[in-house]
Design goal:
binds magnesium ion, Rossmann fold, 8-stranded mixed β-sheet, binds adenosine-5'-triphosphate, alpha/beta
Length: 291
């Protein structure tokens, strides 16, 4: 029963995939410990990528502890759960933030899993093509890895584990890496709230060394970048502004620019080597494989 359902779902995904749409890169931002800067990084990174001319979506999968709406200073009325319940269309829930940037309000509760049935997915897939024009979708997952977040972490193109350099956060980041390593072999890290490149590299090297000897030597763990600790970040969060907008001369903004350029380089590289797999339908196809 489950198998036929999965097969039908797969056929549906294939038939509803638009033929010429481009591939959207899905980047999941996660962490072990809460409050390490996931939403700050997700929102500023999304903004900078959009400013660079990419079409960007940012998906708040942590709406229970909602803060992307706060980060962008917008009001959310309906989220993806309303779409699955048939109470709103995908277009209804999208919140335009700036040129090239939309916020997709998510739902963190497990209630969403109750709606994972054929008819609703069918509706969703047809509607979700609105999102296929996106170049990048950033998924802010919230801290800790629940069951439904694992599906995203497996299906995403990149998983970024954020940590700060304090021992408790490092321990939790390592535990997260260990879990993610059961789902995939490539994991990226961002060191937030560091003093320097040197500190970021030293903390990363330590984590990588332990991961290589205790998880597996072949684990592809890479440092995507770092963000310096700067009171301007906390000030801008309090003012409900992005630091990349409010403080374009700050060092955290330069750090985000660097991370964005790394991501753009990945996008270009992958455009050359990977066969076309279309947007959101592509992500769902990959999610489907795990049912
Ligand atoms: N580079 C930084 N420098 C200074 N303060 C920072 C920096 N990054 C984040 N912060 C502070 O940490 C706070 C928490 O950040 P944020 O809300 O992005 O974390 P989070 O990981 O999304 O949290 P949660 O797990 O609750 O979703 C911010 O409000 C900000 O004050
Ligand atoms: Mg957050």
């Amino acid at each position: 029963m489950r198998e036929t359902q999965a097969k039908k779902l797969q056929e549906l995904v294939e038939s509803s995939a638009p033929k010429r749409s481009k591939k959207t890169r899905f980047i999941a931002i996660t962490s072990g410990k809460g409050g390490v800067g996931k939403s700050t990084i997700s929102s500023n990174l999304a903004y900078v990528l959009a400013q660079n001319g990419l079409n960007v979506g940012i998906f708040d999968a942590d709406i229970g502890l909602a803060n992307l709406d706060v980060m962008f200073n917008v009001k959310i009325k309906k989220n993806i759960l309303h779409v699955l319940k048939g109470e709103a269309s995908v277009a209804d829930i999208l919140i335009p933030i700036t040129r090239n940037l939309i916020l997709i309000p998510g739902e963190s509760g497990d209630e969403i899993l109750k709606y994972a049935d054929m008819a609703l997915f069918e509706r969703f897939m047809q509607e979700a093509q609105v999102l296929d024009k996106l170049d990048v979708m950033i998924i802010d997952t919230g801290a800790g890895i629940g069951e439904h977040i694992q599906m995203f972490l497996k299906a995403a193109d990149d998983v970024v584990v954020v940590t700060v350099p304090d021992p408790a956060a490092i321990t939790d980041a390592y535990a997260t890496i260990k879990t993610v390593a059961t789902l995939r072999n490539d994991i990226l890290m961002i060191m937030n709230q560091v003093k320097s490149d040197k500190e970021a590299k030293a903390v990363f090297d330590k984590i990588q060394k332990v991961a290589h000897s205790n998880i597996r030597a072949s684990l592809d763990l890479q440092l995507l970048g770092k963000i310096n600790s700067d009171p301007k970040v906390a000030i801008s969060v309090k003012q409900r502004a992005l630091f990349s907008v409010a403080y374009p001369n700050s060092s955290p903004h330069r750090d985000i620019l660097h991370i964005a350029s790394q991501i753009s380089a990945k996008l270009e590289r992958d455009m050359l080597v990977t066969p076309n797999e279309s947007g959101l339908s592509g992500l769902f196809r990959r999610l489907m494989e795990h049912f």
